[in-house]
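Incident review: delayed structure delivery

Summary: a single-chain prediction request sat in the queue longer than the usual turnaround. Root cause was a stuck worker, restarted by the on-call engineer. No data loss occurred. The affected request and its eventual output are reproduced below so the record is complete for anyone auditing the incident later.

Affected input:
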Amino acid sequence: MSILGIRSDARGFGRSRLRRSVAVLAIGSAVAAGGGALMANAKTGNPAPINPPSVQAPVPGLADLVEHVRPAVVSILVEGRRAGGQGPQFDFRGDERFREFFERFFGQRPGQGFGRDDDRGRDAPAQRVRAAGSGFIVSPDGFVVTNNHLVGEADEIKVILDDGTEMEAELKGTDPKTDLALLKVSSGEPLPYVEFGTSENTRAGDWVVAIGNPFGLGGTVTTGIVSARGRDINAGPYDDFLQIDAPINRGNSGGPLFDLNGRVVGVNTAIFSPSGGNIGIGFAIPADQARSVIDSLKEKGYVARGKLGVQIQTVTPELADGLGLEEPRGAVVSAVVEDSPAEQAGIRVGDVIVGFNGENVEDAGALPELVANAGPGAETEVTVLREGERRAMNVTLAAQEQTVAKSGADDTREDDGARLGVMAAPVNDETRARFDLPGSVDGTVVVRVQRGSPAARAGLRPGDVIMRVNSETVSSPQALARAVADNPDGLVMLINRGGNQWFTSVEPESVG
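Output delivered after worker restart:
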């Protein structure tokens, strides 16, 4: 199952794995006079101290920096109608450790507050859900960055400035694959804003400052250091998180992470927390990744990514031996999607992809981002190892399916969004996983329902599959748009929700 045209079946927790136990290494009792670590002298074999570079100045005060950037940091309040069991979506790839310990800052743990109404497993009635998070303004005309998991399915979104001013926000676009979203607020005057810096040169040990709205306490400032880079926490296909120890908690989600120059180097997104509170392990989306996603959302309302059409896994030492490889390197192809660019180029199951568009592919975690960033229509060269031989293949990438475009429209056309009030997406591997759809169900899945729309009045909600409109089957958002346009006098829809099917109607005056 691939949500991006590529699946990685063997990606661990980070390129540096978090362990549940700590190994202690005994290094002897000899200590150098200066208290430094010991290493053997290359010539004599005698221990010699490793002397770290000295710190030339104390850590500067942060008050001036905070005073400068805090007006651009906002609190975000969301409200929406969620059905029982339809809480925030998580992709833990079957690893219950992360399902148990990872929390998004939506205000609840996965499943908490979105459960069943009794022990017979019936769906609980829909209820109003409120949550709070953070964001930051990136332009004087009011574009606001936050997390998708906070606002992606909200009916109402409010942005509260640092001075207490409250404004309604419009959802301009979302990208669930990186958990980013872009909002727009309108003001009669230019708003304070901050700019993205670069995360490319960010190093472990660099000081960072987080500002956000933890537990509803807006404008809260915390500081710490970057603990590590390149963390893969199994949250999505493009994981490349900064790990930080600046205290962040529920409500910090979507807030900015600043360097000491006041530039945004990350977007705070997740914590590792057995207890539910901060333990000093947080994760932020790097600025370089966030900037490109936000630019695309601002321009198009979605992110256009390339699609190769393979399922892959990392080459382990055991696989390398079995495949006759000299070293465990690359991404082995476990499946090729029919009629995909990969199949058309001649890529086969068992091929080991070691290069893409001139870049080395060290493991399965490296390939998805390379393919996505190349973009639809890109003509690229894929280098594979097949039966010990190195082969280069020319591939023209396809476009990944878009599940969400601009607010108020589906991923293909706007007319059914305007007339029916839904954002719709094809039923495919991605949407089956996202909404836990039965494998036997086909049709068009509802991604979002516009508040007060005909669809909302008919009781539709995200995750519902529209199977038929009047007598016409609707297997795609395009088919749904045509069916709505062809039936201006009213709709009778066949809906599947969690395996149960029924007909519902839309009042004639609500259409057209």
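Verification: The mean pLDDT is 75.
Action items: add queue-age alerting; document worker restart procedure.
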